[in-house]
C-alpha cells in the first residue's frame, strides 16, 4: 500500500502537466513514435477501455529500461480518476483510482496487451455486473477527451521518465467510446426509478421563485442536468404547493414530479407581563401571513391555543393568565391560505414567563 500511494503521488504531479498540453494524438517527444488513442467497447460481460497506438519502438525501449507503466486518466466532476498498471507484476491493475486523495475505489479488472500493425495496445476490462465499474464507465462515456501517460519508473519509484529518459510521455487524446448498453440505442431507464436526493418539504416565502436543486443518482452515477434530464418549476413563488417536474433525457426517459410547500417565515415573539393575569405579546410582521396563532404551555403541560390574531396585527394582550400560580411557555406561528388550504410557518423560539 505504501508503494501504491507513492506511485499515485507521482501521478498527481504528472496530471498537473496535462492541462497545458495540446489536444493531439501525437507525442511531442522527438524520440517518441507512438500515436496514442483511447477507445471503449463492450465484450461479453465486460466494459473494455483500450489504450492503443504505442509503437513497438517505444514499447521495447520501455521494456528494456524496465518498470514500464501506462495510465489512462479522466477528469470526472472535477476529480481525476485513472486506470493504471505497472509491468512485471509490481502493481496490478487498479481501476478508477481517485488521484485527488489517493483512495482506491475498489474495482479490479483485467488487462491484456497486444501488438497489431506495429503498435501495442492495452485493454482494461471492467465487469458489467459491478455497480461501481458501471457507474464510472457511464461517466467516462460522456467525456470527449482523456489523457495517456507512458513511461518507466526509476529504480526507487520516486520518478517517472520516458522510455528514453527525461519527462514521461503525457498527451491529451480524443476518446472514442461505443457502449451500446449505455447509449440511446439500448433500453432507456425510467427516471422515476432512480434515487433522488431528498429536498426540504418546506421553503420560506421570500417573494422570489424558489428553485431547490435536484440531485439524481443511477447507482453511483450522478446524472447531469441538461444531458440526462431537464427540470421545470411551477407555482414556486407564492405561498402554497410548488411543483418540480423532472424529465428524462438521453439515456433516461419519463418524468418525475416532486412537490414542496412555500410557507411564511418564522417570526420572533416577545412577552411582557404587566400583572399577575395580564401580558402583552408582540412579534415581527411576516410577509404573506393571513393569521397568527399564539400557543401556551402551563407548568410544562401540553401546548394549547391562546389566541388567533389577524395578519395585519403584530401584538395581542391577554388578561386570562395566572402568573402567580403558574409558569408559562409561549410560542407563535403564522399561516397563509391558498385554495382553502393553510400553510403554516415554523414556530417561533419558546419564551418562558412566570
Question: Quick recap of the structure?
Answer:
The protein is mostly beta strands. The protein has 3 helices and 28 strands.
Strand content: over 45%
Number of strands: 28
Mean pLDDT score: 82
Give the overall form. elongated
Radius of gyration, rounded?
32 Å
DSSP summary: helix tally = 3
Structural class: mainly beta
Give the number of domains: 3
- Poorly predicted ranges: 15-28
Q: What separation lies between the terminal Cα atoms?
A: 65 Å
Helix content: 10-25%
Report the biggest beta sheet as strand number plus sense, adding barrel if it closes.
11 strands, mixed
Overview features:
354 residues; mainly beta; Immunoglobulin-like; 11-stranded mixed β-sheet; 5-stranded antiparallel β-sheet; 3 helices; elongated
